[in-house]
Fold:
Amino acid sequence: MSPQTIAVHVDRYDEGAIDSTPPSIETDRSFDLHVTNHGEPVHLHVRADDELADVVSVAETNPYVESGESITIPVRVGAHESDRSGAVELSTRFGANTAAIDLTLTGGVDPDDRVDVDERLASPPDRGESADDGAERRSVPTDALALAGLVVLALVVGIGALSIVDGPAAILGGLTVLAGVLVAGYLLASGDA
Structure:
């Protein structure tokens, strides 16, 4: 379904004059402004008035329209809870020429279409309470992860040293690394880390 279109004419009858067909609209959806410039090139300023500014947005608020050119400006209508009235304001030549399209937003959100959200979702769970209602979660303490990382690093360094260096110093270094790995493994297994 294509959006409803309002024809806006600039400089059609008088220099700088702005007129629209229809001059008012009642809708619950987005719509388009189809702007035609019949005179000199001009910047057209388009905005929702203060009553509708929070739910109506204009895709291009200050387009430049060449002489004889026609452009389409999408006007988006956001969610609203009840009927609202206001206007889409149009102006040229720094406000010297103005017009307004009266806009009545109908409908809003049907109570049957509302989604109820549990208020508990608004805040994170307490430390003692699980995010998934009591399901057990296992986590690895960061100390254990750091210790495991150091064990892997020590093994890599020890194996690298043994492959490069020969002799009694290398064997002693390898045994020292192996002893450190065994102690770290014991600490990890016992949970004292």
Q: What stands out?
A: The two ends are 65 Å apart (CA to CA). The helical segments are 142-164, 168-190. The chain has two helices and ten strands. Residues 54 and 68 are 33 Å apart (CA to CA).
